[in-house]
């Protein structure tokens, strides 16, 4: 801790002011040591800190993976579109329009006949789909193109 000047052969004794300074420094060191020990024994606080750190890591990783998947889906959609002949794309666009029209018609029927709680849940689903429109459209386009390619191969 501190150096003791009162050794045999050393005739100088510390002044009262020096002793007070040493006592204050020792108290401060002791207080810091006690605080450090108390922090190490506070299991609840340490668990909360660890939970917060893990939650932050999971959030970052989720965002990173979501962005990667969105980029890959967009890239795959463009690759399929680039490799698909124009007549197949035209048929896919027509089929997409037909599916959209049919979906609108079915949605209107369901809305008319569904009870209020079901309509509310459906509205929440639609809002979620609209929030993630690009990946859903890319996936739908890929599925439609793959179905058309498969159908055109069967007819050969």
Polypeptide structure, described:
With 156 residues, the protein is mainly alpha-helical. The chain has helices at residues 16-41, 43-83, 86-113, 116-131, 133-154. α2 (43-83) crosses α5 and α3 (86-113) crosses α5 (133-154). The longest helix has 41 residues, at 43-83. It is elongated and about 110 Å long.
Compile the SSE list and pairings:
Layout: H1 16-41, H2 43-83, H3 86-113, H4 116-131, H5 133-154
Helix pairs in contact: 2-5, 3-5
Give short descriptive properties of this protein.
156 residues; mainly alpha; 5 helices
Task: Report the order of strands and helices.
Answer: HHHHH
Percent of residues in β-strands: under 5%
User: Gap between N and C termini, in Å?
Assistant: 91 Å
Q: Radius of gyration from the CA trace?
A: 36 Å
Largest sheet entry: none
Contiguous low-pLDDT stretches (5 residues minimum) are none
Structural class: mainly alpha
What is the percent of helical residues?
over 70%
Q: Mean pLDDT across all residues, rounded? A: 83
- What shape does the CA trace take? elongated
**Distinct helical segment count:** 5
The total of beta strands comes to 0
